[in-house]
Structures are given as structure tokens and as C-alpha cells.
Amino acid sequence: VETPSGILLVLPQIALPLPRKPTLLLLLDAIQTPGNLGTMLRTAAAAGVDAVLLAPGCVDVYNPKVVRGAMGAHLHLPLQRMAWGEIENYVAGLQVAVASAESSQHYTDYNWQQPTVLIIGNEANGPSATARALGKGIAIPMASQTESLNAAMAAGILLFEAVRQRR
């Protein structure tokens, strides 16, 4: 019988400051599945993302399933829940890439070397109209019988393309 890991210790919720001049941000738009959010936080930390912004509608970053999936990312990755107006002000001057299956822009043709915000939309509905209005759509091409990827998987592919181009 397998059991999940127990609680190691209890810490206060920490709020790391947002960077003043970010080079790579992950913006999550109404992500509702705790496992997806946890995986995206862990992946963002592994990819060296400067901070993760959580738009309205995202699951709580301290949900137990999120914390378990993030595997410690909460301890060293700035996480900030923000309203859309605050997001627009914070990302002003950065290029914004919106993951969208409908886009004709291939993600490997996108210039990730510039300071960038990557938006990953809701698991069922994709990016909101507000998110789409902030930037340019990019897509991960797929075989014709596949409609879309899991949000966390798409985030990983796109973030590590940014890492690859920045080497």
C-alpha cells in the first residue's frame, strides 16, 4: 500500500517580492485544477521563471494538492495573485505570448530572448478574452487527431523553449 508523504513542517505563508525587471514571467489565467497548478509552479521554478502571476479564477496556491505538486517551489518562486488591471500595469513594456491552439505562430519561431510573459489559459476554455488582448498567440503544433495538450504540459514545453533560446 502506497501512501502520500506526510507533513514535514508547518511554515507561515511567505510572499516573495516581485522582481522589478523580470525577464520571464508565467501568467496563469483561471487555472482550476490543483495538480496542474502545482506542476506548473514546479516547472516554472525549474525553468528559472522570475515570478508566477495568478489572474482571477485560479485555484489557491496553498491548496494541499498544489503544494504537494509544486515540491517546494513556493519557497523560492515569487507568486502573486493579481487583478487584470494590476497585471496590465506590471507587464507593460514586456512582450506577451498567449498559448493558444488556434494561433498560427509556431512556438519555436517566437523570439523568447526578449523579456517575456507567457500566459497559460484555463484547462477547459483556454485563455480568456482579457488574456488574449494582452499579447500575441503562439501554438504547439499537434497531430490532427489531438485537440489540445494538458495546460501543465503546454507550460513546460513553452517555458523550456524559452530556456533553450536563451542559452
In short:
With 167 residues, the protein is an alpha/beta fold. Helix content is 31%, strand content 15%. It is globular and about 45 Å long.
Structural notes for this entry:
By secondary structure, this protein is of the alpha/beta class. It has a single domain (29-143, 153-166), classed as Alpha/beta knot (3-Layer(aba) Sandwich). The protein is built from 5 helices and 6 strands. It has a 6-stranded parallel β-sheet. Helix 1 packs parallel to helix 2 (64-70) and helix 1 (34-47) packs parallel to helix 5 (151-166). The longest helix has 16 residues, at 151-166.
- Considering DSSP H and I runs of 4 or more, what fraction of the residues is helical? 25-40%
CATH superfamily placement: SPOUT methyltransferase, trefoil knot domain
The Rg value, from CA coordinates, equals: 16 Å
Structural class, by secondary structure, is: alpha/beta
CATH architecture: 3-Layer(aba) Sandwich
Largest sheet: 6 strands, parallel
CATH T-level fold name: Alpha/beta knot
Helix count equals: 5
Percent of sequence in beta strands: 5-15%
The SSE order reads EHEHEHEEHEH
Integer average pLDDT: 94
Keywords:
six-stranded parallel sheet, globular, 6 strands, Alpha/beta knot, 31% helix, alpha/beta, 167 residues
Q: Helices, strands, pairings?
A:
Blueprint: E1 24-28, H1 34-47, E2 51-54, H2 64-70, E3 79-81, H3 84-91, E4 95-99, E5 116-120, H4 129-134, E6 136-138, H5 151-166
Parallel strand pairs: 1-2, 1-5, 2-3, 4-5, 4-6
